[in-house]
Design a protein that fits this description.
It contains 13 helices and 18 strands. The chain is α+β, with helices and mostly antiparallel strands.
C-alpha cells in the first residue's frame, strides 16, 4: 500500500471508529434520557392518580377504583393499576372488573414494596401477563380508609396508584432516532470518503508535482556537481593560465547561464589584474585594473554592490549598472589569484547562483594556485636562478627534442658553446657579487641578441650554450661573432667605476655536418671552444670533426 493510500485511509478509519463510538454513546445517552422522561411522565401520572383516588373519599369501592383506573388509563395512555396496602388489585385499566378477582397479589412487586415503605416506588421488568417489558412507577395515597365503611375486599388503609408504560415505546423511539443519526453518520462518512478520495487525488498530484520539482532540482544539482568536478579535473590538467581560461569559458556559462560574468587574474606585477574570460554579453568593466579598484580584494571576501540599502560599485565596473554586481576573490593558501565577477540581468543574483559561483571560485582559486606552484617549480627546475635563463638540464632536453625534429624534417641544428675569458680574475679582483653581475649582464645580452627560436642556457659556472635550430654554419658563425662583439662592448661599472673588458670564446658545431647525435655535437662544440681558448681567447672556432669523424679545416674569426 502506497503512502498516499495510507494517508487517505487513516483519517477515514479514525473517523469511522469515532463515528461508531459516538453513535453508541449517543444511543446510550438518548435511551437514558428517554427513560428519564418516561419515568417523569409516569411519576406525574401516578401523582394524578393519587389525587383522583383521594377525591373518591371513604365511599370508594372496587367498582369505583376500577372505573377510575380506566379513565386515567385512557387519558394518559399508560396502564393504571390501583392496589391496596396488602397488594390486592382494586382496579386496572387493562383488565375487566370480573378479571380483577383472578389477578395475583402484587405486594411482592418491587415498586409496590418501595411505595409501601417510602411512598414511592420504581422498577423496570418484564411482565408475563402482557408478555412485554414495562417501566413502573408506584405512589402511595396518603388518605386512610376505615375498612368497616368500605368494600370488604379492601383490607388496607393505604392505597397505591401504579402507572406503567411498555419499553417498546422507547425502543420504537430509539429505532427512529437510530435511523436518523445513522443516516447522518452515513452521509457524513460518505462525504468524508468522497472528500478523502478527492484529497487523495489532489495530494497525489501535489506529491507528483513536488517529486518532479525535486527531481529537476536533483538533476540540476547533479549536473552542477558534474560540471564542477569536470572543471576541477580539466583545470588541474592545464599547463598555463590562458589554457585554464579556455576551459572556464566552456564550463562556467553552463553553470551560470543567466548572468554576465567574468574572471580577472593577477599578472606581474602582482597588484594588477587582467581580464581572462567573460561571457553573457558585452562586459561592462575594465579589462585591466589595480587590486585597490576592487572592494572584494580590499575586504578579503565577496563584495555585493547592493548590500544593506547601499550601492557601492567597484571602480573597475561601470557605475551605471542596473543589476546587482558581486565580486568574489579567488583565494587559495592565503593568496589572491584573481576575482570572479557576477552581474545580474535582473534585480539581484539568486542564492543558488551565488552558491554555485562561490563553489566555482574556490575550485578556480585552488587550480590557479596549483598552476602557479607548478610553474614556479618548473621554472626552478629549468631556469638558472642567478641569470634567469635556462639551465643545463633544460638545454639537454631541448637538444634532444630538436634532434628528433631535425632528423624528421631533415634540417640542421647549430650549437654554440660560450665561455667568459679570465672570469676567475674578475671574481678575485672585484668579488663574487661583481662576477654575478657580469654573468647576469652577459646572459641578458645573449638572450636579447639571439633569435626567437634559439634557446639560451647557462651550461655551468661561466659557460653558456645556445641551441640554434634550422641554421646554416655561416649564420651560426655570424651569430657567435655577434655575441662576442656585443659582450666586448659592454659597459659594466661598479660604484661608477668601469671594470675590465669582458671577452668571450665560442665553439661552434653543426648537425649533421659535425655530429650525428646530441652527445657528439656537444663534444664537438666543446672541443672547438677549447681550441678557441688555446688559440688566445676572444674568438670563434668551428669544430674540426665532421660526422664521419674526419678532421677538417677550422675557421678562426
Amino acid at each position: 500500500m502506497t503512502i498516499t493510500k495510507k494517508l487517505t485511509l487513516a483519517p477515514i478509519i479514525v473517523l469511522l471508529a469515532v463515528g461508531v463510538t459516538s453513535a453508541l454513546m449517543l444511543d446510550s445517552y438518548l435511551q437514558s434520557v428517554l427513560k428519564d422522561r418516561i419515568k417523569e411522565e409516569l411519576s406525574g401520572i401516578a401523582a394524578s392518580a393519587m389525587v383522583a383516588v383521594n377525591a373518591l373519599g371513604q365511599a370508594a369501592d372496587i367498582e369505583s377504583f376500577d372505573a377510575l383506573a380506566d379513565r386515567l388509563g385512557k387519558s394518559s395512555g399508560a396502564r393504571i393499576t390501583i392496589v391496596d396496602g396488602e397488594g390486592v388489585v382494586l382496579g386496572d385499566s387493562e383488565l375487566l372488573l370480573e378479571e380483577l378477582r383472578q389477578v395475583e397479589n402484587l405486594k411482592s412487586r418491587p415498586e409496590i414494596q418501595s411505595a409501601i415503605r417510602g411512598g414511592y416506588g420504581f422498577s423496570e421488568r418484564y411482565s408475563a401477563t402482557v408478555n412485554a417489558a414495562f417501566m413502573y412507577v408506584a405512589t402511595q395515597v396518603t388518605s386512610k380508609y376505615a375498612t368497616s365503611q368500605q368494600d370488604p375486599a379492601i383490607k388496607s388503609r393505604f392505597i397505591i396508584a401504579r402507572a406503567a408504560l411498555p419499553l417498546t415505546n422507547i425502543n420504537k423511539a430509539m429505532a427512529g432516532m437510530r435511523w436518523g443519526y445513522g443516516l447522518i453518520i452515513f452521509a457524513s462518512f460518505s462525504g468524508v470518503v468522497l472528500l478523502g478520495l478527492v484529497a487523495s487525488r489532489l495530494l497525489a498530484k501535489a506529491i507528483q508535482n513536488e517529486r518532479m520539482v525535486l527531481e529537476q532540482r536533483v538533476s540540476a544539482r547533479t549536473k552542477e556537481i558534474s560540471l564542477l568536478q569536470n572543471m576541477s579535473g580539466l583545470l588541474n590538467a592545464c599547463t598555463n593560465v590562458d589554457e585554464a581560461g579556455k576551459i572556464l569559458m566552456q564550463i562556467l556559462p553552463q553553470l551560470l547561464p543567466d548572468l554576465k560574468a567574468a574572471i580577472s587574474v593577477t599578472r606581474p606585477p602582482r597588484n594588477k589584474l587582467t581580464l581572462l574570460a567573460n561571457w553573457g554579453g558585452e562586459w561592462p568593466g575594465a579589462e585591466s585594473f589595480k587590486s585597490n579598484d576592487c572592494w572584494a580584494l580590499r575586504k578579503g571576501h565577496h563584495h555585493t554592490s547592493r548590500e544593506q540599502e547601499t550601492n557601492v560599485v567597484c571602480e573597475h565596473l561601470d557605475d551605471t549598472l542596473k543589476g546587482e554586481a558581486i565580486c568574489i576573490p579567488l583565494l587559495a593558501q592565503g593568496e589572491t589569484f584573481g576575482v570572479l565577477h557576477l552581474i545580474s540581468n535582473e534585480s539581484q543574483v539568486s542564492d543558488n547562483e551565488f552558491k554555485i559561483a562561490t563553489s566555482a571560485a574556490e575550485q578556480i582559486g585552488l587550480a590557479l594556485a596549483n598552476l602557479q606552484l607548478r610553474n614556479d617549480l618548473r621554472q626552478q627546475a629549468i631556469r638558472d636562478p642567478l641569470t634567469e635563463i635556462y639551465n643545463r638540464r633544460y638545454m639537454k632536453e631541448t637538444l634532444r627534442q630538436e634532434f628528433s625534429r631535425a632528423k624528421r624534417l631533415h634540417t640542421t641544428i647549430g650549437l654554440l658553446m660560450i665561455d667568459l675569458d679570465h672570469f676567475k680574475k674578475i671574481n678575485d679582483t672585484f668579488g663574487h657579487d661583481t662576477g654575478d653581475l657580469v654573468l647576469r649582464r652577459v646572459a641578458r645580452e645573449l638572450r636579447k641578441n639571439s633569435r626567437a627560436e634559439d634557446t639560451v642556457c647557462r651550461f655551468g659556472g661561466e659557460e653558456f650554450c645556445l641551441v640554434c635550430p634550422d641554421i646554416s654554419l655561416e649564420n651560426a658563425q655570424y651569430l657567435a661573432d655577434k655575441f662576442r662583439k656585443r659582450i666586448r662592448n659592454l659597459d659594466i661599472r661598479i660604484n661608477h667605476k668601469p671594470i675590465d673588458t669582458v671577452t668571450l670564446s665560442v665553439g661552434v658545431a653543426l648537425f649533421p655536418h659535425h655530429a650525428h647525435d646530441a652527445e657528439l655535437l656537444l663534444k664537438s662544440a666543446d672541443e672547438a671552444l677549447y681550441r678557441a681558448k688555446a688559440e688566445g681567447r676572444d674568438r670563434v672556432m668551428v669544430s674540426l670533426v665532421n660526422k664521419a669523424g674526419v678532421k677538417s679545416q677550422f675557421l678562426l674569426i
